[in-house]
Amino acid sequence: MNASNDVITAYRHAPTRTVEAGGVTYAYRELGRKGGIPVVFFVHLAATLDNWDPRIVDPIAQNRHVIAFDQRGVGASTGQVPDSVEAMADDAFAFITALGFDKVDIFSFSLGGFVAQALVLKHPDLVRKLVLTGTGPKGGKDIDKVAGVTYRDILRATLARSDAKEFLFFNRNATGKLAARAFVNRLKERTADRDAPIKIKAFRTQLKAIQTWGRSVPDDLSKITQPTLIANGDNDRMVPSVLSEDLHRRIKGSQLVIFPDSGHGGIFQFHEKFSPLAVEFLAR
């Protein structure tokens, strides 16, 4: 068997590894062929390594080195979750540099998109390309209401004996419900070496950080000169879709894709359309 066949390109088979940085042990998974600039994935609120849709990760890993990681205090990573997005960005920087990289592409979703923006502004030389999905700018309209929406939908999901993401990420119409179930099932494709779920305290701290981010003075996003791809559904109730348009206006030369009849998880619902776009954008 030659080495080229040994490359793992399915996220469900990616082994979980750890690296030390600043007194924190970060858990991460990597797949795809090593060499070149890696694509680092920044995950959403309450999410661990097990929350990435393989239909998004796997196509990118076909030709790129992909790395997903647990933020400090999340999943299998040690330490306490920071109470600010900027501190999360500092942790992400510590993690990336501990792996020895001085240039990365970033793929981010939701809270991960806030962290990615903060990181790019602090360390512009680190990031070559930026993918911002289901996210919005600091101080963006109604971002501080995420906590209320989240708690409401967790309650609705509990009563319906469903995964909260089915309510938070997807429209509650026939199309949305089908897409939601398919998405949740895809997250279960990995059966061995699963991550530890987020702890309630860590989740609440993340919500507090999001609330602060939503109520803060906006950053000057004209400083972001990296090629940027922005995507969302047209009916995002968590991070309102208008904020994707706001990002697009403020990041010069950025590309915007809005998927119809879909919510916060629009990229997951439309993975067959979105994944090739992301692959092409990152390869350009």
UniProtKB/TrEMBL annotation:
GO function terms (MF aspect): hydrolase activity
Keywords: Hydrolase
Keyword Hydrolase: yes
Residue stretches making up the AB hydrolase-1 domain: 39-268
Gene3D superfamilies: alpha/beta hydrolase
Isomerase recorded as keyword: no
Pfam family, one: Abhydrolase_1
PANTHER family: AB HYDROLASE-1 DOMAIN-CONTAINING PROTEIN, HYDROLASE, ALPHA/BETA FOLD FAMILY PROTEIN
Descriptive protein name: Alpha/beta fold hydrolase
UniProt source species: Kribbella deserti
Phylogenetic lineage: Bacteria, Bacillati, Actinomycetota, Actinomycetes, Propionibacteriales
